[in-house]
Every structure is written in structure tokens, then in C-alpha cells.
């Protein structure tokens, strides 16, 4: 976090900015989702307010803010109001641990007659050596927000939706947790930053004491664990309650599931939680399987970009920040493409039935992930120890 | 330790202040309609709403939660095992592989037993 006041202040502001950026992504994603669904269904979508309908976001925000604050008579008032915040917290906390780009190195500078620095500002709110455990632990708290919302609403639809949601989330959490064991074995670390470092360069591996290298492929996790990547991605859909797994709110059966009684900004906070989980899922897939913020097909990118920036701006904070910006763009591209896949799938596949959903979780994903773990362990033993 | 946890606490505080603050501010901005008993009723299509305290839901959900706890503990044991396995794969990889295989085998047997006994069926 930091040793002196300026560093703590910079880090606190950075944490707030990353959180607010995540929140600001939600209206954009809603817009993208509406435009994307219109594109897929051969409609126009929102295109009246502002260029490309982008001002629709502002109009929606105004609408959300000026809604009545409604608490039904049956509801447990405190929990009813607390549930949206509880739904938002896990997504925000989990997103904080995902590395967004390389750190910015700030040179020593003078301020208020004192000299400060040098500082290294990480482009992630929380840097931990057990990042994965933290993210899995925190994001599984998401079930509590839905459960409390459904129970405190005092409505049978909400309750049924909440119970469905929690059963679904815990079922797919197993697949989620097991799917990444394979990739953890390959990296041999729980630190997300180290994982990204290990995905640098061309595709290379050791097999039976010999080193192999394929120069035209990046060294990404997806090439080591294609099955694990697919299973993990499926499980993130269920964890964020997205179609085809949006049984908790299936509007044909349960009105709106756990958020039937919610409106206005409370409703928006559930949306933020859901889209936040989507972003965490996309960020994790990027970090584990797609090389994180590294750019593909250009090896030694960090040194190259840093030297390029230094050649134009001289060594110092600006060059470091420009390099960070380059990696941030790559991270955004990868996460953006994955988020588009989330939207694409939602408007392509129909919803599961509840029994087929649980069957998929327990009878398909769980055995396959277990098989993936066993296969990876055996192949690694064969490749590295023999 | 605190050094790693402090950003989380700050972020938690920011999120809670944001959420609670927005709830309070939007309650100031929104209209204040007169609350009649009909208006405060839980959402239902015209008929009186069913009390959630008497709403029944299948006991299957409890069974799912219990199975989840079993397999989640398996996952918890797997995580530290992966690191130890990769670090010591040359010296004692075979021993670690077999011991974890036995542990997982028992749980996988449990999964298939539950499957065969119909514990995973939803009708």
C-alpha cells in the first residue's frame, strides 16, 4: 500500500478510480448489449438519443435516479436495502485483484517543499501472492447478495429465484474452482502477476527433458489447457447468472426472480453486480488463458515499448505511463472481445431448464473438470519428472 | 499482512459508502407517493400474494448444498496440493500423485454413488 502519505493517497485515489471505471462500464455494457441484441435480431436498438443512441445511457441513469424508493410491506427493511450493496461488493472486490497493466514508475518529485518518491504504482487495486484464492473466495460471496435480496423481499417469486440462484451458483463454483487447477499446476503459482509474466514470449514447453518452441504462437494458457479454458468460461456464465444460465431471474416463470421487488437504483446495483461478475470472469479468462495484458505476436513487448517511449519522451514517468497505457489497451481489447462473447451467447442460446442446468453442472462439468485435473497432473508428471 | 489487506478494506469502505450514499441520495430524488396497503403488497398478478414463510421449496436444494460442501472441501485440498506437487515433482512426484489420486478417487466414487443413487436427479 505504501510507506508515506503521498503514496497512500495516490493508491487510495487509484482504488477509487478503478472501482468507478468498473461502475462506468456497466451503462456502456448495457448499451452494447441492447445494440448487440438488436444487431443479432436484425432490429435497430436504441438509436434515437444522441449519436448511435449513446446518450441513452444518461437518460437511463436519470430514470434510475428519479425512481421512487419503494419498500414493500412484507420486506425486512434493513436487509432489503442492504442486499443490493452486498451484491455489488463481491464483484468490486474481485475485480480489484486483476492486473490491468504493467506498473507505472513515478520518478522522485518535489511537492510542498519536500521531495517524494520514487514510487511504483501497480495497475491493480490489490496485489496479492494468493490472488486466485482471494478472487474465488470473494466472488463466491455473491450468492449472499442474491439470497438476502430474495429472502428479505417478502415475495414468493423472489424467494424461489434466490434459492435457485444460490443452488446454481454453488453448483457451478465447483466447476469454476476445479477448471483452473490444471492451469495452476502448469504455472505453479497463485500470483496473477507471475502468471502473466510466465505467458510472455512464443509458445514453448519442456517435454521429457527436451525444450520445444513454436515461434508463431504466443505462450498463452489456452494452448496448454484448451479444455480447462472452455470449462472455466462456461462456469463464469453460470456464476454471473447470464443466459443461458439465468434461471434465477427467468422472467417467464418467476417475474424477475430475486429482484422482483426492486426498482430504481437498487435494481441498477444488482445490474452492476451482474456485469461486474461478467467483467471479473472476462478478466480472469484473459489473465489465465489469454496472456493477460500482454500483446500477442510481439515478444519482449515491455522492453520494446518502454524503449520506444523513452526515445520519444525521454526516460521518466511519462515513458512508463505510456507503456502502461499500451498494455491497458491490450487488456481492454481482450476483455472487450470476451464481453462481446457473453452478449453474443445470451442472444444466441435459449435458456436451460432447471434440471438440465443442474445436470450440466454436476454430471457434465464436474466430471470433465476432474478429468482435466487428473489428466494434467499425469501429463505433467510424465513430461517433467520422467 | 496488513499491508496487503489495507487496500481491500479501503475498497470495501468505498463500495459501501458508494452504495449506501446512492441509496440515500436517490431516495431524496424520487417521488414520494402516498403508501396504501394495496400499494405495499408484494408483487402478484391480481390475487393476494402468497406469504413466503409458507412457500414450500424442494428439499433437493439442501441436498445440493451438502454435496457442494463435500466437493468444495476437495477443491480446497487440491489448491495447496498443486503448488507442492509442482515444486517437488522431480523428487516425490509419484508419491504425491498417488496420494492425491487416492483422495480424489474416494470423492469421485462418492460422486458416482450419489449419481447412481439418484441424488443428482431433478424431476
Keywords:
heterodimer, A: 386 residues, mainly alpha, two-stranded antiparallel ribbon, 7% strand, B: 123 residues, Methane Monooxygenase Hydroxylase, Chain G, domain 1, 3 helices, 0% strand, flat
Q: How would you describe the overall organization of this protein?
A:
The complex is a heterodimer of chains A (386) and B (123). Chain A has one domain (70-119, 126-385). The mean pLDDT of chain A is 83. Chain A is mainly α and 386 residues long. A two-stranded antiparallel sheet of chain A has the order 1-4. In chain A, strands 2-3 form a two-stranded antiparallel sheet. Chain A has helices at 5-40, 56-65, 77-96, 131-139, 142-152, 156-179, 181-187, 192-198, 221-224, 226-239, 251-254, 264-289, 301-313, 317-346, 354-385, and strands at 104-106, 109-111, 114-116, 119-121, 202-207, 210-218. The longest helix of chain A has 36 residues, at 5-40. With 123 residues, chain B is mostly helical. Chain B has a single domain, classed as NADH:ubiquinone/plastoquinone oxidoreductase, chain 3 (Methane Monooxygenase Hydroxylase, Chain G, domain 1, Up-down Bundle). Chains A and B meet through α1, α3, α6, α7 and α12 of A and α1, α2 and α3 of B.
Number of strands of chain B: 0
Q: Widest sheet of chain A: strand order? A: 1-4
Return the average pLDDT of chain B rounded to an integer.
82
Q: Assess the beta-strand content of chain A as a share of residues.
A: 5-15%
Distance between the termini of chain B: 49 Å
Order of helices and strands of chain B: HHH
Helical fraction of chain A? 55-70%
Rounded to an integer in angstroms, the radius of gyration calculated over CA atoms of chain B is 26 Å
Helix amount of chain B, in percent?
55-70%
Assign the CATH architecture of chain B. Up-down Bundle
Amino acid at each position: 500500500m505504501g510507506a508515506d502519505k503521498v503514496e497512500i493517497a495516490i493508491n487510495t485515489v487509484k482504488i477509487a478510480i478503478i472501482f468507478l471505471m468498473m461502475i462506468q462500464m456497466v451503462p456502456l455494457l448495457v448499451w452494447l448489449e441492447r445494440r448487440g441484441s438488436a444487431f443479432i435480431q436484425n432490429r435497430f436498438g436504441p438509436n434515437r438519443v444522441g449519436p448511435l443512441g449513446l446518450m441513452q445511457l444518461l437518460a437511463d441513469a436519470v430514470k434510475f435516479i428519479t425512481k421512487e424508493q419503494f419498500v414493500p410491506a412484507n420486506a425486512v427493511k434493513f436487509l432489503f436495502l442492504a442486499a443490493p450493496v452486498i451484491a455489488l461488493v463481491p464483484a468490486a472486490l474481485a475485480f480489484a485483484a486483476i492486473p490491468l497493466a504493467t506498473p507505472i514508475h513515478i520518478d522522485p518529485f518535489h511537492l510542498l517543499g519536500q521531495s517524494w518518491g520514487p514510487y511504483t504504482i501497480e495497475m491493480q487495486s490489490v496485489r496479492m501472492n494468493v490472488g486466485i484464492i482471494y478472487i474465488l473466495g470473494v466472488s463466491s460471496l455473491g450468492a449472499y447478495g442474491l439470497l438476502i435480496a430474495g429472502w428479505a423481499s417478502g415475495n414468493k417469486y423472489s424467494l424461489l429465484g434466490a434459492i435457485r440462484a444460490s443452488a446454481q451458483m454453488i453448483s457451478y463454483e465447483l466447476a469454476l474452482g476445479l477448471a483452473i487447477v490444471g492451469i495452476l499446476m502448469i504455472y505453479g503459482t497463485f500470483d496473477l502477476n507471475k502468471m502473466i509474466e510466465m505467458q510472455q514470449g512464443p509458445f514453448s514447453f519442456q517435454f521429457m527433458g527436451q525444450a520445444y518452441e513454436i515461434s508463431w504462437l504466443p505462450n498463452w494458457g489456452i494452448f496448454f489447457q484448451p479444455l480447462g479454458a472452455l470449462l472455466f468460461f462456461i462456469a463464469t456464465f453460470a456464476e454471473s447468472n447470464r443466459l443461458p444460465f439465468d434461471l434465477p431471474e427467468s422472467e417467464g416463470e418467476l417475474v424477475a426472480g430475486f429482484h422482483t421487488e426492486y426498482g430504481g437504483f437498487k435494481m441498477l446495483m444488482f445490474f452492476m453486480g451482474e456485469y461486474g461478475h461478467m467483467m471479473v470472469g472476462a478478466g480472469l479468462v484473459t489473465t489465465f488463458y489469454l496472456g493477460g495484458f500482454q500483446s500477442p505476436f510481439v515478444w519482449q513487448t515491455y522492453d520494446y515499448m518502454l524503449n520506444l517511449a523513452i526515445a520519444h519522451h525521454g526516460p521518466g514517468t511519462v515513458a512508463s505511463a505510456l507503456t502502461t497505457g499500451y498494455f491497458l489497451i491490450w487488456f481492454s481489447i481482450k476483455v472487450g472481445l470476451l464481453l462481446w462473447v457473453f452478449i453474443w451467447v445470451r442472444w444466441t442460446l435459449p435458456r436451460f431448464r432447471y434440471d438440465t442446468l443442474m445436470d450440466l453442472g454436476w454430471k457434465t462439468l464436474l466430471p470433465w473438470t476432474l478429468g482435466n485435473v487428473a489428466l494434467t497432473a499425469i501429463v505433467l508428471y510424465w513430461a517433467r519428472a520422467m | 499482512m496488513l499491508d496487503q489487506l489495507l487496500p481491500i478494506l479501503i475498497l470495501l469502505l468505498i463500495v459501501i459508502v458508494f452504495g449506501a450514499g446512492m441509496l440515500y441520495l436517490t431516495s431524496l430524488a424520487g417521488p414520494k407517493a402516498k403508501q396504501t396497503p394495496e400499494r405495499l403488497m408484494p408483487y402478484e398478478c391480481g390475487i393476494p400474494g402468497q406469504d413466503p414463510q409458507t412457500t414450500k421449496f424442494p428439499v433437493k436444494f439442501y441436498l445440493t448444498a451438502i454435496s457442494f460442501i463435500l466437493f468444495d472441501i476437495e477443491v480446497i485440498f487440491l489448491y495447496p496440493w498443486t503448488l507442492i506437487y509442482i515444486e517437488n515433482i522431480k523428487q516425490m512426484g509419484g508419491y504425491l500423485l498417488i496420494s492425491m489420486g487416492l483422495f480424489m478417487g474416494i470423492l469421485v466414487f462418492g460422486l458416482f454413488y450419489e449419481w447412481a443413487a439418484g441424488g443428482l436427479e431433478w424431476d
